[in-house]
Amino acid sequence: ADVLLWRNKKVSGAILAGLTIIWFLFEVAEFHLVTLLSYILLFTMAILTLWMLSIIGNYVDTLNLFYIVVLCFETLPGLYERHRNEVDNLAAKLYRDSQKLYIKFEHNVLNKIPRGPAKQNKYY
């Protein structure tokens, strides 16, 4: 009731401004809800990525991080070439395990989601 009676002017003004922006986006700028949600999701992902990079930057100096990346680029291809069979076997094992995990997920979760019959397309 305080918001509707404008007793708390900051909250009431913020709500009015937010609703005005939403109205402007949908009516004047002709945004669609899916487009707006995708933009919000992209913005959130960019913010989270920058936040993670700032956390990493707090613990590791930029020059050290650059050195570690260059060191990995220089040594990992040679190590892979030398131990190709072991790495390929490990990758194949990880792939099989992930396939088993997905089959289990599909059986326990996805198959329990009710689905209606698929609509037939009359143009084909």
TrEMBL record:
Annotated keywords: Endoplasmic reticulum, Membrane, Transmembrane, Transmembrane helix
InterPro entries associated with the record: Reticulon, Reticulon-like
GO cellular component, as recorded: endoplasmic reticulum membrane
Localization annotation: Endoplasmic reticulum membrane
GO biological process: response to bacterium
Keyword field contains Endoplasmic reticulum: yes
Cited Pfam families: Reticulon (PF02453)
Residue stretches making up the Reticulon domain: 1-45, 47-121
Membrane topology classification: Multi-pass membrane protein
Ranges that cross the membrane: 12-29, 36-56
Name of this chain's protein: Reticulon-like protein
Species, as recorded: Cannabis sativa
Lineage start: Eukaryota, Viridiplantae, Streptophyta, Embryophyta, Tracheophyta
